[in-house]
Amino acid sequence: MTEERMRLDVFLWRARFFKARTSATEAIEARGARIERDGQVRRIDKPATPVEAGDILAFHAPSGAKLVRILSLPARRGPPAEAALCYEALVAR
Fold it and tell me: What's the rounded mean pLDDT across residues 12-27?
């Protein structure tokens, strides 16, 4: 059975944007993120905010600013090739 929602920090860690979940948590608390769902954009500063497939995320990763669409929620922190199937990188609008 797959999850319909997942904590933002867990998604960012499992999708391999951060090496540690605590790093994802600290980045969200310090710099925030934006989630676009159903045409509504929300600014987020809580790592426990749930995300779901179809959401568009804007956040700061160690490698720079990212804008991604969630395609599926990863069941585990797998290899990079597996993690890359969970999101689609978007061009900044």
Answer: 97
